[in-house]
Amino acid sequence: MGEALGIQVWCEDEAGPYKTAPYPGYSWHPEQQPLGQPHEYIRNGTAKLLTLFHPATGTVRIKGVTNSTNATLHEWFKSQLTEILADQPLVMPTALDVWGNRLIWESWREDLTIKVSLSAELPRLRLLLVMDNLVGHKNPEWLRWCFSQGILPIYTPLAGSWLNMAESIQRLLKRRALNGTYPKTTGEIVDQFVAAARHWNRQPTPFIWAGKRHARRQRAYFSSHSVGASATVTRRPICRRDAKWQAATQMTH
Asked: Rounded to whole angstroms, how far apart are CA atoms 116 and 106?
């Protein structure tokens, strides 16, 4: 709904840590000559991935870091979000429209269990930012900056981080960047993630709820056969004895 109303919707997440260790996965090697990975490795630090994802276009922005403290996280977010909103002017509501503008902000927070206090003066809403329910994401200085830029953070509920589509793109990038490789340094991990994200952005795929994957799951479910009163299904039909066989069995007994 946000995109349809001219409000950008982005997702944020941090992934990792990723170790300097061999990662299992497929690799292109001659038949019967698989790539061997050592069972021992040198611990040479870990890397984390900061991610901003735009589901409507499939565009992803990432940064590889060795820590995700508030200073590192918020500094990168501010620079990236400023670039994202560069083509949307920051507009303050007129004196007659202040209350209506606040109602628009509040409408996007209905039914949320966690609601931070909004600033007294709010510009036009320009962007919704889906974030995990972490303490660092509720930093007062960070929230004041978001409100001043027309950005409303929306937190996923506890045990509901799967609602954040940024986690989906992170799993995809991780497979493309690390599976079947053995990075020796954190710099190699970051470079591999940057390369994977760059290739993804050349032809990004939009993410939508109830998309093609959901349709495939629905087709698979309805093409299966239910078993009993539970939700259990089978891929092949179970042979059910007809009424004549049951009547004959009862007569013999």
From this structure: 11
